[in-house]
Amino acid sequence: MKEKMGIRREVIEANDTAIKIKNLHKEFKLPTERSSGLKQAIFNRLRGVKGYKIQKVLKGLDFEIKKGEFIGIVGRNGSGKSTLLKILAGIYYPSGGEVIVNGTLVPFIELGVGFNPELTGRENVYLNGALLGFSNKEMDEMYDDIWKFAELEQFQDQKLKNYSSGMQVRLAFSIAIRAKGDILVLDEVLAVGDAAFQQKCNDYFENLKEHGQTIILVTHSMENVRKFCTRAIMIEDGKIVRDGNPEKVADDYLKLFDN
Amino acid sequence: MTIPNVLYRKNRILLKELTKTDFKLRYQGSMLGYMWALLRPLMLFAILYIVFAKLLKMGGDIPHYPVYLLTGTTLWSFFTECTSQGIQAMVHRGDLIRKIAFPKYIVVVSTTFTALINLAINLLVVVAFALINGVTPSLSWLVVPFLILELYMLSLGISFLLGAINVKFRDIASIWEVFIQALFYAVPIIYPVTMVANTSTLAAKIILLNPIAQVIQDVRYCLITPEAITGWNFLENPMLMVAPIMIVVCVLGFGAAYFRKKSRFFAEEI
User: Fold this and answer.
1) Considering only CA atoms, which of B156, B119, B126 is closest in space to residue B141?
2) ipTM of this model?
3) Looking at domain A7-107+219-256, what is its CATH homologous superfamily?
């Protein structure tokens, strides 16, 4: 039962590379039995059955991301883009190949991770802030701005379960944008809230782009790819099939769905 | 080497906040709230006291038997709470583990810290109870924190080891619940060690090799009465005297190493 392992390293070097990926592979062991308990494991061992099958999700990716690039990663559902993102963020460990991350990485790929419905908005803000690495004191300083941006000041002491889903995402987004790091890794977070709030989000991303923040974004919105990205990568069946100009990649992506 | 430093600070912040949240959530929505941290062990004590001290008349010749019993139940409650919560910690926090990269041990440690806070509150009750009962404070009380540290290390080691296995095989948590019920009777909490020693010296010696028994007896010795039988005054062989401590060190060392090795794959297995 030896796990195949690749390498993931975090370094701080003074060159213009943000992320370098060499021959990246990732495979998952999917249990073939319905139950995955101890009983099944013992049965499988006795019968000499493996009890799982290998699912290859990423099959040898190579690319390099320079500092200041705004990368869009596109592809169909199940193509492996979220797995790639999770490996970049350090949530999954590569099965083969090498990932080198140069600089600090914001470990936030989705909004509202760790939000607890039983806690108040205030408590959730501090908890979420801690996940981003902010101390209580730092959060105190940002606290009012976060609520102002979310436009939810009057709900601070309500439990989160009494928020609408739109309100929750707005709060989550307002906290997430406080994150500081050299590389931002985001999974489908652009379409948040109503039109007015989306305008705010757009302004925020425009601003990041102008300041040369390195961003990797997984999205299905070709509109956003064209609007923000400086480069796009299309993944199909665990391999890179296009890499380059966002306009062209967006066109190619849409062609996938033309019959 | 700036990265480890940054991480170190982040980890501390996260540990603090997760412990706070854990503590808040545990008693969320109950009328008496935090009071339950105190009430639960006291109720266990009350039941055991009525059944064993009053009805079965155990521990008649032990001075301050009620305090003696309360010390045992308090430490036992801590051990059960710490391990059963610790083993389930990874599964309970699966939402975080699937979505954020952070050192996984923080989740286990924060859960066990909550149990440690509860223990601290309960020990205040034990001390108050002891003073009311006429136990004279002595310098040996200062040893108690080290004994509690030992018990904490054991609980943490078990939580790491079984918690890591529990990610894949959820049966572990259930097995542990049953196992701990049996273990309760293998530890001299309700019965005095003398009672066992009168029938079989060997059995008493085996009981005292268990680190939990060692800690409970040592705390009783330091806190209440030097008449309490401990490994130090009962086991003649010095090798056997330190055996419980060696067990704790091994369990924690092995547990932490195993957890560390497996933690890379928690996000996809959970």
Assistant:
1) B126
2) 0.84
3) P-loop containing nucleotide triphosphate hydrolases (3.40.50.300)
